[in-house]
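Incident log, structure service

09:12 report received: a user says their structure output differs between two submissions of the same chain.
09:20 pulled the input from the user's history:
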Amino acid sequence: MNKVLFIISDFEGGGTQRVISLIANNLIRDNYEIKICLINQSKIKYFLSKKVKTIELNIRSNKKNFFDFIFKNLQRLVLLRKTFKSHKDYILVSFLNTTNILCLLSSIGLNSKVIINERNDILKQKLNFSWRFLKFMTYNLADLIITNNKSNLLFLKSKYGKKVNYINNPVEIKKFKKQKRKKIILSVGSLNDQKNYLQLLRCFKAFSLKNDNWTYNILGEGQLRKKLIEYIKFLDLEKKVKIFNFTDPSSFYKKSSIFIHGAKYEGTPNVLLEAMSFRIPIISSDYNGSSDIIKNNYNGIIYQIESDEDLLKKMQHLAFSNNLRKELSDNGYSYVKKYDISEISKEWIKLLNKLKKS
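09:34 re-ran on a clean worker, output below:
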């Protein structure tokens, strides 16, 4: 039997965790034995098949104390190496840069096959000097490197050549009972600076002055929650804006009329694919790679991230045009079918088989 061990820092709400859950559940159906190693203490917030086993190292997050940071990462290295030694017949598949580094260091000398995944914009994602140095020293040790972003692909190929492969994010397209959509704008994503919620809230404030019957829902968790709540109060939007803790977003997708994604940088955001699969018209920032998914004015609308005026103009236009919303949502639904997990899973199997034979 083919065996794969996925490694991730946690399984809280996030696009990468969603990707792992979809791939793991589908590989199980193709007679793979799948385990997921969770490094830090966390809740499992995505559905996993009962056949997918989890290994929980239960390491608490680092404190700001430097010595605690060093100690916790040494602890991670020791526990990961112990785990890898007991899973020598598994292909190791790691996600996100610091976890990639820890896995590559922990597997030195074990003769394990290691795949690492870069899921974000490499040139814009911030790493401190220590992690950047370790990344430089370790990434070439990987057997394969997978990215979901075409600009990342070019950059990584220039450094690591044939080791680098492109596989897009999957989405699970489900049939759902259509219901009347409400005048709700929706955003889904971690509450951090990358997702650019301050701009979205500013523009919704201006939008709401002329569209009093629309509301705005944000679904996500993160370190900026308190700041965003304070900003909502400052804008006097408490009655129109709600921030929900992360949960299965399906019910939110079904009832909303517009989806807005304002990220400053991204890999390939799963939420855009999910929104298309639920037939919601999309407005997205022009982050590097947005055109990989969105054909402007065909299956979504792209706005200039540096321009509040441009975003507001496109929000107004979409809100007032039922025909445009239907056209974008229909085109988006047709477009996203090629990213269905049944198709993306085949690409993963092809790559895993290639590595197994090497």
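09:41 both user submissions now match this output. Likely a transient worker issue. Closing.
09:42 reviewer note: The mean pLDDT is 94. The two ends are 17 Å apart (CA to CA).
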